[in-house]
Amino acid sequence: MATTAKDILKQVWGHDDFRVPQDKIIEAVLAGQDVLALLPTGGGKSICFQVPALMRAGVCLVISPLIALMKDQVENLKRKGIKAYAIYSGMTKREIDIVLDNCIYGDVKFLYVSPERLKADIFRERFAKMNVSLIAVDEAHCISQWGYDFRPPYLEIAEIRALQPTVNVIALTATATPQVQADIQEKLAFKSGHERFVKSFARSNLSYAVRIVEDKEEKLIEVLQQVQGTAVVYVRNRKATQDIAQLISKRGISATYYHAGLNNAQREVRQKDWMQGKVRVIVATNAFGMGIDKPDVRCVIHLDLPEHLEAYYQEAGRAGRDEKRAFAVILAYRTEGEELIERAEATYPPIDFIKKVYQSLANYYRIAVGSSLLADYDFDIHDFIATYKLDGLAVYRAIKLLQEAGFIELSEAYYKPSTLMFAVDNRKLYEFQIAQAKLDLFIKALLRLYGGELFRDFFKISEEKIAEVLSIPVSEVFKKLQYLEQSGIIYYQPRKDKPQLTFLTPRYDATSLPIDTRLIKFRKETAIEKARAMSAYVNDSTFCRTRRFMEYFGEESYNDCGACDVCIDKKKEQVENPIKDKVLNILQDQRLTFEELLACFKPADKENLASCLRNLRDVGILDVDAQKKLYIHH
Asked: Does the domain formed by 5-198 have CATH 3.90.226.10?
């Protein structure tokens, strides 16, 4: 039996040693202290609460807003023989009831919960009765109004702490400014003697670069040709994922695309092909990446600017997790930074429009005033927009604001497989099989495929697999399962593969919707401030990229990284100064192509000349005309 943290790490994960500072974090948790841990993307956050939880008796409550990540972690734990469950939007009351009972009376070690579930009476009543070993808060920045992804349901965590006052908390995030760090500790009611661990935001193997370009697509192909190996290309919208993937494929580089609008089977196949190296490049929206641990990504390229540095740091950080040389590149137009700021200013629509969208949602689902607390609904935004003839982008922004205000929750990349559990015991099932002989073979097939677990818990099933075993159409399987449920023999939940919209409060009369206008103003100002920081990152070609991240996240830094484009250009400038002077002198009163200009230099100067010209174009000194001739931009 494992007795130390290292024993558990070896037995369960097969690792001999912890990464810095995982061991110190685990020590502090086991000592009963509240802990804030900032570990960059890929830094092994889950180990920091899973190991101490396995060393203690009882269940570890894990709060996370990312349903896909929750389900991945639960499946990973189950594969290791560790009992784990998750509660999230789209589950029935019966399913939730059974999970909570198992956490009180069974040997469950981990219960993952989305934050909006914390306010439910059924959860609070059962949580108070559980033997809780630890509370882990993932994506802890969501609790702060200063953060980039504020989620009001996170504020419930301090209240549930009061139900288990002796249990300590570990809060984890990849990115948080000093202001957000302080807010996390305050809002989670950290006790005196708490600890804070921050792993350096510097990545010595990751070279950051920004290229101001006129043709992003050509530059993208150039980068992919120069940097060999697996790559991720991030774009803002779903249509662009397909268009860019096709473009890359036509240029002889294998590529696929990924976004939340694909069904679960499509997402799984594309992710798997990329993970296994069958496809070199995956073009994706920001729906892709959470929980993806592929160590050999050599390049992450952004064709559109992320909304803030927090998102960019996380997405870029998916490159080079094997600690070998990797690149994070932004391709931007000259005006893109200003456009990002303008977009942030336009993100918050008028209050009257927000209320109109809320009322339309209530009408869409026929929800009466005062009802639907924590009710989940399939949400097709395109059908909703068409039904009420609303502007799509404005609707999306209004929904995001309603989410930030704590009225609704939208889970976009959502998939829940079909689940089944017998509602009767063995004896009553046998009596039913005798009385309904036509269903005997079908019930036996269920038992043969999924076993006695079906009497104790909801179990994932595949209607296609059942159809294959019985050599009947899938449509027939659905009919038989629905009949068994109507007969009271099973609890059956067909799979869901549509975004889920959850009402976090009883439905209000839209005219009296209590929107906090001061909070909206504050959130808008925060979004604009973060957009300005992102714009400064793109447009300032004089300040080390890594140092900018470190200072933004409150880490003291004195040395340039030496690896980003700014640092490399500074090194080159020492060589290029004479070249630059000569270029400007030659082009003072004429226009020349690169080849014509090169004829004025030694062949050995070709690389330094190209770099010099790129720098002069990036800062707007040189430009190129329609005949591809270089000239000084006056």
From this structure: no
| Residue 543 region by backbone torsions, left for phi larger than 0, else alpha for psi between -120 and 50, else beta | beta
- pLDDT tens for residues 173-215? 988 999 999 999 999 999 988 999 998 888 889 999 999 999 9
Q: Which pTM was predicted?
A: 0.82
Convert the pLDDT of each residue in 327-366 to its tens digit. 999 999 999 999 999 999 888 889 999 999 999 999 999 9
DSSP SS3 for 209: strand
CATH architecture of 342-415+498-515: Orthogonal Bundle (1.10)
The architecture (CATH level 2) of 565-632 comes to: Orthogonal Bundle (1.10)
Give the C-alpha separation, 165 to 110, whole Å: 19
Provide CB contacts within 8 A for 255, sequence distance 6+. Answer: 233, 244, 245, 246, 248, 249, 279, 280, 281, 282, 283
Percent of the chain exceeding pLDDT 70 equals 97
pLDDT in tens, 228-238: 999 999 999 99
Q: Structurally, what CATH architecture does the domain formed by 206-334+536-552 represent?
A: 3-Layer(aba) Sandwich (3.40)
- Beta strand 408-411 with 500-503: parallel, antiparallel or unpaired? antiparallel
Reduced to 3 states (helix: H, G, I; strand: E, B; else coil), residue 442 is helix
490 touches 484 (CB < 8 A) = yes
The Cα 168–Cα 134 span in angstroms is: 6
